[in-house]
């Protein structure tokens, strides 16, 4: 039985819908504790929401890498049993983790709050994915395009950072508070850098396929920005640890690296848009719109990230809703837009006619999600500014700061409903298009995209 390349992609979309619904419930459970609290307790919904959102990004990224590497490396078809094992462990672990929250079973750390035993099958699933990919990739690694390098290093650093995020289970780390929190913050920052590598590789892949110019993924500029991204992955976590004791050179290196954050991706997307002809934009209109939206969100979040990386400003922003705005701008505004662009790229190749019928609904979902995201983002920043001014600047108690920030948080909550509607429309349409019954049709509408594969 052949592996279903859409299985993990569809699973990721269900996770996104689940995360969006939980996000709306959380907002109103927080503000309407008397009305909602007994049925939807905030402390139970929050870890489910955070975990679902993280799992959506990782599942979609891994599923897309699997889908596109099958196109690039024909030899991988002989190793699909590893992907079946990897996906079975991964999806089973996620269901187990979410079920544990429902039954009130916790025990992990921030972002991975489910019982720690679940981390074992998660790690095994990524090791299987690496075992599936690496033997073929490393056979001709130096001659591979940059997106293969990004996928390979993203997978490696996710595994290393995920192991590091679980070092707290060792007494030597857990029994020293400073050591423990430093390693946790460092590991979580590096994990984000690792999944960024996977997602940025998807952008490069889409660039070459939509533009038809393979050389853009083999140029010296592409590899320069690849190594710049690697530097961010390896050192940019330092700006997460400004508030813990550390050597001054660590802060200085982190600050310098932070100044380059996302510059390479912004440059890449800008070059991509310049190279596309009008005909290619029309042929890939959905993917083009989502990738263009990601470019706007990179610019906005870059401005916020650069400001937050300045130590004098970081003193005020750390621990406020501004950090949440930064995280949401990245996971929703950048990562999710790119992932939707890649998912719709697959749908455009296999179901162009059906996609055209849904044009107005896709446009509506795209506009609603981006407008709602902007209101969502601004509401968090405004709430963070109020909280920082009152608590850090005026030394007011937490309750006073939160009361003053409440109007902005209410606006943020209502914007979450818009995100649910906008992204929900797009996700439901993709679930309609990415169906196992149509797998045989995927390549009928494809141009010859494998002509560069393995010829090097």
DSSP helix fraction: over 70%
Biggest β-sheet: count, sense, barrel? Answer: none
Radius of gyration: 22 Å
Q: Based on Cα principal axes, name the global outline.
A: globular
Distance between the termini: 31 Å
Structural class computed from helices and strand pairing? mainly alpha
> Would you list the SSEs in sequence order as H and E?
HHHHHHHHHHHHHHHHHH
Give an account of the 3D structure:
- The longest helix is centred in the C-terminal third of the chain and has 36 residues, at 398-433.
- The chain has 456 residues and is mainly alpha-helical.
- The relative contact order is 0.10.
- The model is unreliable at 437-456 (pLDDT under 50).
- The protein has a domain at 277-439.
- The protein is globular.
- The protein is built from 18 helices and no strands.
Task: Give a short summary of the structure.
This protein has 456 residues and is an all-alpha fold. Helix content is 76%, strand content 0%. The radius of gyration is 22 Å and the shape is globular.
List the helices and strands and how they pair.
Elements: H1 7-31, H2 33-36, H3 42-72, H4 80-102, H5 119-139, H6 146-165, H7 171-174, H8 177-211, H9 220-235, H10 248-258, H11 263-275, H12 278-283, H13 285-309, H14 311-317, H15 321-350, H16 352-357, H17 359-393, H18 398-433
Helix pairs in contact: 1-3, 1-18, 3-4, 3-8, 3-15, 4-5, 5-6, 6-8, 6-9, 8-9, 8-11, 8-15, 11-13, 13-15, 13-17, 15-17, 15-18, 17-18
Characteristic terms for this protein:
single chain; 456 residues; mainly alpha; 18 helices; 76% helix; 0% strand; globular; disordered C terminus
């Amino acid at each position: 039985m052949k592996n279903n390349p859409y299985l993990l992609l569809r699973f990721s979309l269900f996770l996104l819908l689940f995360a969006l619904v939980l996000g709306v419930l959380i907002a109103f459970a927080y503000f309407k504790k008397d009305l909602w609290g007994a049925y939807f307790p905030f402390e139970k919904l929050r870890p489910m929401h955070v975990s679902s959102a993280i799992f959506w990004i990782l599942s979609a990224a891994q599923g897309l890498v699997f889908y596109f590497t099958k196109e690039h490396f024909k030899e991988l078809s002989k190793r699909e049993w590893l992907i079946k094992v990897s996906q079975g462990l991964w999806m089973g672990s996620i269901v187990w983790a979410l079920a544990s929250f429902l039954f009130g079973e916790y025990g992990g750390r921030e972002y991975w709050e489910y019982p720690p035993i679940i981390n074992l099958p998660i790690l095994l699933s990524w090791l299987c994915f690496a075992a599936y990919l690496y033997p073929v990739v490393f056979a001709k690694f130096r001659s591979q395009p940059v997106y293969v390098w990004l996928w390979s290093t993203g997978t490696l650093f996710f595994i290393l950072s995920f192991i590091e995020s679980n070092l707290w289970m060792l007494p030597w780390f857990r029994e020293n508070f400073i050591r423990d929190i430093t390693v946790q913050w460092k590991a979580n920052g590096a994990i984000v850098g690792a999944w960024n590598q996977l997602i940025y590789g998807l952008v490069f892949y889409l660039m070459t396929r939509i533009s038809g110019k393979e050389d853009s993924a083999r140029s010296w500029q592409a590899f320069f920005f690849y190594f710049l991204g690697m530097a961010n992955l390896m050192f940019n976590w330092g700006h997460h640890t400004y508030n813990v004791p550390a050597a001054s050179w660590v802060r200085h290196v982190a600050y310098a690296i932070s100044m380059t954050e996302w510059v390479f991706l912004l440059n890449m997307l800008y070059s991509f848009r310049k190279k596309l002809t009008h005909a290619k934009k029309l042929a890939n209109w959905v993917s083009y719109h989502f990738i263009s939206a990601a470019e706007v969100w990179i610019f906005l979040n870059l401005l916020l990230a650069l400001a937050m990386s300045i130590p004098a400003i970081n003193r005020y922003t750390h621990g406020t809703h501004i950090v949440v705005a930064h995280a949401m701008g990245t996971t929703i505004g950048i990562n999710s837009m790119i992932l939707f662009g890649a998912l719709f790229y697959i749908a455009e190749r296999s179901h162009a006619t059906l996609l055209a019928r849904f044009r107005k609904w896709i446009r509506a979902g795209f506009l609603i999600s981006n407008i709602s995201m902007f209101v969502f983002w601004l509401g968090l920043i405004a709430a963070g500014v109020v909280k920082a001014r009152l608590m850090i600047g005026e030394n007011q108690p937490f309750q006073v700061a939160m009361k003053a920030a409440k109007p902005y948080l209410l606006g943020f909550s209502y914007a979450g409903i818009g995100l649910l509607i906008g992204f929900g429309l797009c996700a439901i349409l993709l679930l309609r298009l990415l169906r196992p019954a149509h797998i045989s049709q995927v390549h009928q509408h494809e141009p010859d995209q494998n002509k560069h594969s393995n010829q090097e």
